[in-house]
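[Discussion] Sanity-checking designs against the backbone

I'm trying to build intuition for which residues belong where. Below is a structure token string of 154 positions. I'd appreciate it if someone posts a full sequence so I can compare it with mine line by line.
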């Protein structure tokens, strides 16, 4: 059985995410998707608009995904080894970068093949979030749950 792995934040799930998952599933028998936990998103200097629990459920519900797991760190090789994945899927916006050139060498030593998929041009969660902010004035902070008074309390 060929197990494939990919990971991402999957905030504001869009057609680019769907394209990646659909294409990845075509190369493996079992597709496992790492969904970045909120703390790691913040470590990367960003903030997800959709909470982790919702994002992982959205990914888990996609028909191309066989399993969705939390991604607690950026070590994709460790995740592949732990899951038994022999293929790592990633967007081609990383192709040729210094970081991923090193990853290719490390993956090859572990018997993990990297497959790059075309990045869906013109769409990203960042662009969607910027559009929401521009049109509606929404920010990630404003979408966080707030405590409300219970007016029915005695």
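Best answer:
Here's mine. Compare freely.
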């Amino acid at each position: 059985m060929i197990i494939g792995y990919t990971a991402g934040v999957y905030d504001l799930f869009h057609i680019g995410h769907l394209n990646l998952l659909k294409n990845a599933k075509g190369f493996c028998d079992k597709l496992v998707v790492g969904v970045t936990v909120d703390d790691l998103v913040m470590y990367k200097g960003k903030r997800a608009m959709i909470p982790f629990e919702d994002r992982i459920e959205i990914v888990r519900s996609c028909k191309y995904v066989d399993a969705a797991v939390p991604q607690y760190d950026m070590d994709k090789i460790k995740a592949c080894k732990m899951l038994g994945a022999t293929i790592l899927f990633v967007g081609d916006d990383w192709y040729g970068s210094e970081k991923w050139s090193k990853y290719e060498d490390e993956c090859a030593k572990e018997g993990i093949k990297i497959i790059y998929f075309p990045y869906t041009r013109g769409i990203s969660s960042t662009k969607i979030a910027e559009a929401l902010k521009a049109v509606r004035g929404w920010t990630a902070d404003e979408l966080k749950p707030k405590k409300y008074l219970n007016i029915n309390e005695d």
